[in-house]
Amino acid sequence: MNTFSNNFTDTTSRTRIAFVQSCWHRDIVDQLRDAFLRTHAELDNRDVDLFEVPGAFEIPLRAKILASSGQYAGIVTGGLIVDGGIYRHEFVSSAVIDGLMRVQLDTGVPVFSAVLTPQDFLSDGQPEFFQEHFVTKGTEAAHACIETIGAVKQHQVA
Hints:
Elements: E1 16-22, H1 26-43, E2 47-53, H2 59-68, E3 72-80, H3 89-107, E4 111-116, H4 126-157
Parallel strand pairs: 1-2, 1-3, 3-4
Helix pairs in contact: 1-4, 2-3
């Protein structure tokens, strides 16, 4: 018996994963993408399609379009939202995370957020720290993606 409502389809048989990243702070976000791709390739045989958007604010719309396409078992997102000294980053962060959760709940396609908002990014040493931290987050995102798709598949078969 399928535990999902009729509004959702079986996404686990799909053979592709989408990875959507913002281009702002590309040097750091690329570390996340590369670590995700490396780890994912070691653990799963699904192909990964790469997509770019200008900034993090644009990620949820691209994720919604991809989730609605019927092609993807999961969507992984990566970005960096920096506190640039104006009170904007908190609004952007909330909008992005809320938007990604809405995509996931509306479509039934798992969506993973590695869109991070460091509290103190502009301090000395922080950009270098986050370049390495994003490698860790890319690896974690790959594991979360594969494990979640597997769990969803188990519940759909039950």
